[in-house]
Amino acid sequence: MEKATALNTRAGWQEEETARLLSAVRAANASGAPLRSVFESLSGDLGRKPNSIRNYYYTCLRRRPEGATLPVTPFETFTPEETHHLLRQVLMARGQGRSVRSCVMAMAQGSHSRMLRYQNKYRALLRTRPELIESVRQELAREGLPCPPPRLETADPAFCDPEDTAAARLMAQPCVAAMLEGIKELIRRAARAEDASTIQCALDRLKVQHDLQRLSWEKDYLALADCLEKLTTVLKEFFALERASQLPQMDLFQESILTLLPQAEQLLEESRNLN
C-alpha cells in the first residue's frame, strides 16, 4: 500500500482515480473494447491526456503487481437474459427520446465501469446483431411499450407530402447519387478502420500479457540466482578451508547443502513448467 501511495503521489494521481482507471480497463476487457477507448473516454473526466493515462496504466503494471493482474483475469460476460434486458431498456429509452448514454448511466447507478460495460455491449450489438435489436424492438411494439421506429429503406410515395416528393426527386439527381456513393465509401473505410481497431485491441491484450509474463519471469530468475549464489558461496568457503579444518565443518556444510539444493531444484522445476 505504501508503494502504491508513493507511485500515485509521484504521478499526481489520487487513489480514487487509479481505482477508476483499473475498473474501466476491466469493463473494456469484458466487452472486448480496445484499451485505447478507455484512455480516451477517461481523458475528459480526469482532465488528463490519453497518452498520460496510458503511460500511468503501464507504470502500474510494472510497479504494482497486485493491480497488474486485474486486466487479464476472467470477467463475467453478458448472459442472454442480460443482453435481452439491456436491449429492452435502451430501446424503450430511445422510444422516449432519451440517448443511449443517459439510459446506460441510469442502469449503472453511478458506476462508471458498469456504464462503459453496458455502452460497449450495446455498440457491439449494433455492429454484429442488428437482427436481434429489431426482434426486441418488435417485441416492445407488440407490448405497446415505447420503442424507436423501424429503419425503413424506402417509403410509399402515396404517403409522402409534397416536400417529401421533392426530396425524392432531389435524391434521384446524379450528383446526389455520387455524394451518397462517397458516403458509402467513407463508411467502408470506417469499417476497415474498425477492423484495425480490433487488431489493435488484440495487440494491446498481448502486450499486457507479455508484460505480466516478463514480470513473473524476472521474479523467478532473481529467486533462482539468489539461491545459486548462496549455494556457490557455501561450496567456495568450504573448499577454501585446509583439509584439517574441513572435517569439523562437515556437518554444517552438509546441512547447508541439503537445505539449498531442494530449493534450487524446485525453482528449476518451476522454470521448466513455465516454458
Care to describe what's here?
The protein is an all-alpha fold and 275 residues long. Among the domains are: 71 residues; 119 residues, no CATH class. It is built from 13 helices and no strands. The longest helix has 66 residues. The two termini are 32 Å apart. About 9% of the residues have low confidence.
Question: Any key phrases for this structure?
Answer:
single chain; 275 residues; mainly alpha; 13 helices; 79% helix; elongated
Shape: elongated
Helix-strand string: HHHHHHHHHHHHH
Low-pLDDT regions: 66-75, 152-165
Helix content: over 70%
Task: Provide a concise account of the structure shown.
It is built from 13 helices and no strands.
Strand-helix topology:
Elements (H helix, E strand, L loop, with lengths): L1 H10 L3 H17 L3 H12 L3 H14 L1 H4 L11 H16 L4 H9 L3 H17 L1 H13 L19 H10 L2 H66 L3 H4 L3 H25 L1
Helix pairs in contact: 2-3, 2-8, 3-4, 6-7, 6-9, 7-8, 11-13
